[in-house]
């Protein structure tokens, strides 16, 4: 054998079955030796679950207990399945099937379709979005490109949760899921989509599972044939199993119980796709005789990182939190996690880039560093900061900011407006640069207020809003700059960020980071409204946000930095607050014992007299000009002057206003107008007097709604209704 054979790339195959067990810790060895009956492995982050699984299968094969062809190991990504197959080959267990649920089901469907149905399997539709567009057109429902993506995602969710079109509206209401359109309309499009598939003899990705389930339910002879072939099943990432995947697994098993599942309820972060940890949490109930093994020895992260991860979960609530695992680091000591507060977002990005440059100078490879954020729209400021610092980077799970479709379209529109100059009717009566950009981008989907909920529409808005903010910052830095100057700046930024980055810092969303790890991780933008995200309203949704942050923390091996900015842009109002999830963890934020449920507590109101609004001219608080328009006077600024509004607070106020309007049976503007809510979100009042000084908040509304509005501004929403107030 050559030396390369003994390298980490080409490890030597263990000579005996017992040699397969060498190097396993006691719990991993227990997993490997549990070769019969139901087995449930609760594996925390970094505890070597894939190692335990592959060594279990390899030991069973090498010991003659398992036949390679009789084992089916399923996971959720092709990358994970490929890694599992590679490890099994290195352990001398080639021939074991390691596939995704869809890959395994598709093979069975292709083989048994002629026997079960006759003829050839219908063509698999690789992208369903065009068919959804056709279905919407047939229903005479107009969808823009982003709504089309969101409706497509809703149809996928409905299918994996086994919801038929007629039941979709009720299922959405029951799940407290925020649909991107009227649920009745989506149900109608969903039904037409299914009809068009039948008419065109095509099936989609979800149909692969549904049809396989249907055949196994209806044809017992085919089910028996599959069960004779596969007698032992292994399921990785079991917390991410959907109801449909669980149904298929049950049919594969039949009345047998040779099943080994591995998962961690604290890493359930894909519920929006239909994933649920219930199957993992209920495993012992369904299989009372199951062997349950907990893997808690963390080989990935230092004790300092593990301590923070454990502390984060110690504040969690709900059923998944009741089954959390207390990790124990097996690594040597490392640096303490760093908490950093910045004045604004650009300062946070620049500070992060400086720290990354220092780490690289100290010997940490750029490829072993990651910047993780909540939504892809946050990437642009970090792309720019790293480019300015000369640090190579690569994006994972998202297009580069300037390569996104909406950003390209916005660039074309801005370039056209710049060329047209004064001849563009969009720019009539619009003078300053930010107002020009807002006018142009309003034709591409930008609005002054963010759309409700998540999804493609929200992502598109976030990208366009980032361009608006960039224009505002550019105009501040270069007074007198024109639209042509801004277009040139955008072109330069785009060109700089297209430089080759073979070995670079990873920029990724927290969702895209699942399953990965780095020596150094920077968790950025950790403010209320972003972590948890503003549209996480229910307790369950907030807890999933906490788990998402936990996943981010546990990606770090050694260096971990958590940061936030107090305002959106330089010079803006410092009204953002660090994420509630950091309370009791970061220095000076109280002890863990004192941390209660999010949003609780009381609100103290000032006892001084209510200030009356001053008489005489009202001046813009930004530029000092005299205000004459009612809307501008309400905002206390010219409508074209930069806004420092807290968008997350504005969204919370809008949601609260909608609830009040429903209870009162009145239009929302009867509670407060949009301009009044914007003024509140900009000025963030803390007392009765400060709230009363805002135009549109009279004595009657102050008495009726004041306590709740101040509580929302303080981030401590109460439970009282308008009558109680």
Using only C-alpha atoms, the radius of gyration works out to 28 Å
Enumerate the spans where pLDDT stays under 50 for 5 or more consecutive residues: 1-10, 496-502, 592-616, 718-725
By secondary-structure content and strand pairing, the structural class works out as alpha/beta
Mean pLDDT: 82
What does this molecule look like?
The chain is of the alpha/beta class. Helices cover 45% and strands 10% of the residues. It contains 28 helices and 18 strands. The chain has a six-stranded parallel sheet, sandwiched between helices. It has a six-stranded parallel sheet with strand order 11-16-15-12-14-13, with helices on both faces. The protein is globular.
Output the keywords.
alpha/beta; 6-stranded parallel β-sheet; 725 residues; disordered C terminus; single chain
In short:
This protein has 725 residues and is α/β, with parallel strands linked by helices. The chain contains 28 helices and 18 strands.
Topology:
Blueprint: H1 17-20, H2 26-33, E1 39-43, H3 49-62, E2 71-75, H4 78-90, E3 97-100, H5 101-116, E4 123-124, H6 129-138, H7 145-160, H8 168-175, H9 183-200, E5 202-203, H10 205-218, H11 220-229, E6 232-235, H12 243-253, E7 259-263, H13 278-281, H14 283-286, E8 291-295, E9 297-298, H15 303-314, H16 319-322, E10 328-329, E11 338-342, H17 345-361, E12 369-373, H18 379-388, E13 393-396, H19 405-420, H20 433-441, H21 456-477, H22 483-496, E14 505-509, E15 518-523, H23 539-553, E16 556-565, E17 618-619, E18 626-627, H24 630-635, H25 647-664, H26 674-683, H27 688-692, H28 699-713
Parallel strand pairs: 1-7, 1-8, 2-3, 2-6, 4-5, 6-7, 9-10, 11-16, 12-14, 12-15, 13-14, 15-16
Antiparallel strand pairs: 17-18
């Amino acid at each position: 054998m050559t030396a390369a054979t003994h390298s980490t790339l080409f490890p030597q195959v263990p000579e005996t079955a017992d040699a397969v067990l060498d190097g396993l810790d006691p719990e991993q060895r227990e997993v490997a030796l549990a070769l019969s009956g139901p087995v449930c492995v609760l594996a925390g982050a970094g505890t070597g679950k894939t190692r335990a699984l592959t060594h279990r299968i390899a030991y069973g094969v090498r010991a003659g207990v398992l036949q390679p062809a009789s084992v089916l190991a399923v996971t959720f990504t092709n990358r994970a399945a490929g890694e599992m197959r590679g490890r099994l080959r290195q352990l001398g267990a080639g021939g074991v099937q390691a596939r995704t649920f869809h890959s395994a089901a598709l093979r069975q469907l292709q083989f048994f379709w002629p026997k079960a149905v006759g003829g050839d399997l219908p063509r698999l539709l690789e992208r369903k979005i065009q068919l959804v567009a056709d279905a919407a057109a047939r229903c005479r429902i107009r969808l823009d490109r982003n709504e089309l993506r969101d409706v497509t995602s809703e149809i996928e969710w409905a299918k994996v949760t086994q919801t038929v079109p007629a039941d979709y509206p009720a299922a959405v209401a029951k799940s407290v899921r925020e649909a991107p359109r009227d649920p009745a309309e989506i149900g109608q499009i969903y039904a037409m989509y299914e009809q068009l598939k039948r008419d065109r003899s095509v099936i989609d990705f979800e149909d692969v599972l549904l049809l396989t389930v249907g055949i196994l339910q209806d044809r017992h002879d085919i089910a028996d044939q599959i069960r004779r072939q596969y007698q032992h099943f292994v399921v990785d990432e079991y917390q991410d199993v959907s109801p449909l995947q669980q149904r298929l697994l049950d049919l594969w098993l039949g009345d047998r119980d040779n099943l080994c599942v591995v998962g961690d309820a604290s890493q359930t972060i894909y519920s929006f796709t239909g994933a649920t940890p219930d199957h993992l949490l209920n495993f012992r109930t369904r299989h009372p005789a199951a062997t349950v093994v907990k893997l808690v020895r963390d080989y990935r992260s230092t004790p300092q990182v593990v301590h923070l991860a454990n502390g984060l979960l110690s504040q969690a609530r709900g059923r998944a939190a009741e089954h959390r695992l207390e990790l124990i680091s097996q690594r040597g000591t490392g640096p303490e996690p760093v908490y950093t507060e910045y004045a604004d977002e650009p300062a946070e990005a620049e500070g992060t880039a400086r720290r990354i440059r220092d780490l690289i100078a100290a010997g940490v490879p750029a490829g072993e560093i990651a910047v993780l954020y909540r939504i892809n729209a946050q990437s642009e400021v970090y792309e720019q900061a790293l480019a300015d610092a000369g640090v190579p980077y690569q994006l994972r799970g998202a297009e580069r900011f300037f390569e996104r479709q909406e950003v390209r379209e916005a660039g074309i529109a801005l370039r056209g407006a710049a060329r047209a100059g004064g001849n563009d009717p969009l720019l009539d009566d619009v003078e300053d640069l930010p107002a020009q950009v807002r006018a142009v981008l309003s034709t591409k989907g930008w609005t002054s207020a963010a759309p409700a909920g998540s999804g493609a529409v929200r992502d598109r808005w976030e990208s366009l809003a980032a361009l608006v903010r960039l224009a505002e910052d550019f105009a501040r830095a270069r007074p007198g700059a024109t639209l042509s100057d801004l277009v040139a700046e955008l072109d330069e930024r785009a060109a700089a960020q297209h430089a080759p980055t073979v070995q670079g810092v990873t920029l990724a969303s927290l969702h895209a980071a699942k399953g990965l790890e780095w020596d150094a991780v920077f968790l950025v933008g950790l403010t209320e409204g972003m972590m948890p995200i503003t549209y996480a309203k229910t307790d369950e949704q907030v807890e999933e946000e906490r788990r998402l942050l936990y996943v981010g923390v546990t990606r770090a091996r050694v260096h971990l930095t958590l940061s936030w900015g107090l305002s959106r842009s330089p010079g803006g109002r410092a009204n953002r607050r660090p994420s509630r999830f950091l309370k009791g963890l970061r220095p000076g934020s109280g002890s863990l014992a004192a941390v209660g449920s999010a949003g609780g507590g009381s609100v103290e109101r000032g006892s001084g007299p209510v200030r009356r609004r001053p008489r005489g001219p009202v001046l813009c608080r930004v530029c000092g000009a005299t205000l004459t328009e009612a809307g501008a006077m309400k905002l206390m600024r010219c409508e074209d002057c930069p806004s420092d509004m807290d968008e997350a607070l504005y969204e919370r106020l809008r949601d609260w206003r909608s609830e009040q309007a429903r209870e009162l049976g009145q239009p929302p503007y009867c509670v407060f107008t949009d301009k009044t809510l914007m003024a509140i979100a900009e000025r963030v009042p803390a007392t009765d007097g400060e709230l009363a000084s805002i135009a549109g908040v009279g004595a009657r509304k102050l008495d009726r709604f004041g306590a709740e509005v101040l509580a929302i501004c303080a981030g401590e929403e109460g439970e009282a209704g308008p009558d109680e107030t």
